[in-house]
TrEMBL record:
<feature type="coiled-coil region">
    <location>
        <begin position="99"/>
        <end position="126"/>
    </location>
</feature>
<keyword id="KW-0378">Hydrolase</keyword>
<protein>
    <submittedName>
        <fullName>Alpha/beta hydrolase</fullName>
    </submittedName>
</protein>
<feature type="domain" description="DUF1023">
    <location>
        <begin position="310"/>
        <end position="495"/>
    </location>
</feature>
<dbReference type="InterPro" id="IPR010427">
    <property type="entry name" value="DUF1023"/>
</dbReference>
<dbReference type="GO" id="GO:0016787">
    <property type="term" value="F:hydrolase activity"/>
</dbReference>
<dbReference type="Pfam" id="PF06259">
    <property type="entry name" value="Abhydrolase_8"/>
</dbReference>
<keyword id="KW-0175">Coiled coil</keyword>
<dbReference type="InterPro" id="IPR029058">
    <property type="entry name" value="AB_hydrolase_fold"/>
</dbReference>
Amino acid sequence: MTTIAVPAWLPREPELKVQESAGAVLTDVRAAATAVSDVAEWARANGAPDDFSGDAADAASHAVTRFATDTDAVGAALERGALAIDAFLTQMRQRRSEHADLMERRQRLNSDREALLQRIETATEDQVPALQAEAAQLRAAFDTYHQDLQAWRDRVDADEQRCVRALAAVDQLAEGLAAAADSSRADSDALAAELRRLGTDTDAVNAWWNGLSQAERNALLISDPSLVGNTNGVPTGDRDEANSAAVQRDLEYLLARQAAGDTLSASEQRWLENAQSIQKAVDQASSPAWDGLDVDAFIMAYQPHAFGGDGIAAVAYGDPDTADHTAVYVPGIMQDGTMIDENGSQALNLYEETVNQMAAEVPPREGSVSTIAWIGYDSPNFNPESMWPWDLGDSAGDVSHTITEANAAAGGLALSQFVDGLNSTHSSGDQPHLTVIGHSYGSTTSSYAAAGGMDADSLVLIGSPGASEGVDHVSDLNMPTGQVFVGAADHDPVSWLGGEDGLFPGTWDDSLGLGADPAQHDFGAVNFAVDNGQEFHGTGLVTTGFMENHVNYFDDASATHDNAALVNMANIVSGNTDAVEDTGGRTQEAHDYLYDWVGGEVQHHVVDPVVETYEGVRDGVVETYEGVRDGVVETYEGVRDGVNDTVDGARDAWDDLWPDQWP
């Protein structure tokens, strides 16, 4: 048979050595550049001390000026380096996509080759011409593949060389000085001023940011990471880069001071706790508990000094700029930046339940998910920097905001602006399917946002102490019809606080409280099933009552127990609201749950013990009486029996002496 030339099998091209994790290098460089920028700014602002004079003053001033110039040169060099690394990583993402396409072509070509070989093995002589033509076409396809593969290798090599040249161009002080003096260098001060001017107009911020050059964005990421990272309307990826650099800078600075033996002040310790917590929130996305999710984490807000050290923090699991379904989780009292990791774990549980539900549908439902833990308002809390007992008043004043709505009102505005930012940055250009979930005092905050016109699709209020002032019915929340959902456990004491009237008789406390109970049937929301929790008494109010029953809404489902609240919230997040059954809501006033519990506690701790004591005393008296009575009877019977025994003995003795003569 005539020989048919079949091309050789195609081997797999190795993966690129530069992976997504290499982005940590860019974060490191930006963090270093930010620290250098801070030092340079300080040096430019400081000359010789005011009380210096003469040559010493001149010398000091000149020294600081030279130091500022040199530091600025280092900053300019790092800025150029960060820009080069950023461009290189962007190119590598493109190269990885191209690599995946090439490997798919390789697999198809190898499959075509195997199929041709099988046909050749069984071919007859008259089939040879057709097979030769097919083999020629296959060889041409293989040649094209080899050419495209080599072109891809050349692009990878060119990308690497371009990055190396850019870094080498600023590895000397003189080169850094030249970069600092370059008239084309981005004016970060002017850019920051413009970003501040745009303020809360998230659409304008997004359009302006996307219109910047990469060099301008890079300059702002280095000079003003806090501004970039916390401005709604800046894309999530860029916010994450800015905030990640700021977190790393803070951790390195504070931990280095600790390692050197310095004692951190109360505010510095709190600063460190904020930075460590948000880093934990990011890291836990790849921890064993959730490693199967393969989800990325993004730092969307980081302001460790906000609210007197309580801090602002937000972490997204999954990219909200591309997600089809996004949920923003707003926690309640006693939550601050140092607890973002704990709130992040609840957001991860919600993410996991949502994606698992969508995958389990038949057929599986397409769509991506993002869940965000957001602590962007001043949740009532103890003053983190107060000194016991001298500053107890400040802390008590902060916690007392729990029974007022000032913090919730301010937080509602901040939440609404955050949601606006999510809508502005979504890559589709359309609003994503967006759900806001408020827990505890966070539900009051979320209600304020909704009543003020927050642009979301669904609102979930769980464990709510009240739906905020002026909100008497679901229609006051300005949400789409049927898209306000409420979950309230019967044994959750926080959910007993809602109501139009005060907690106590009379009207003196009607101005306190957080508004109507949204779990009431006549409020008009969809009430979904939850685990009602365990009954509790005494110290259980602090343990079971406030801890377990109030926070179990986000608990991960176990192998033997589904968390109804988590299941329902996941259905809401994914838009599958038809699966959420309305249980009808409460017909008993929320305060009545509290009164019933107080009455039960009085019965449990006062009435029952008194009755038990009375019955114990009564039973003791009766027992004593019966004991005395039985003792008397027993003594009488003993004496009687003894006398009878004596008489009987005497009679028997008489009979022995004088038979039949006993009187």
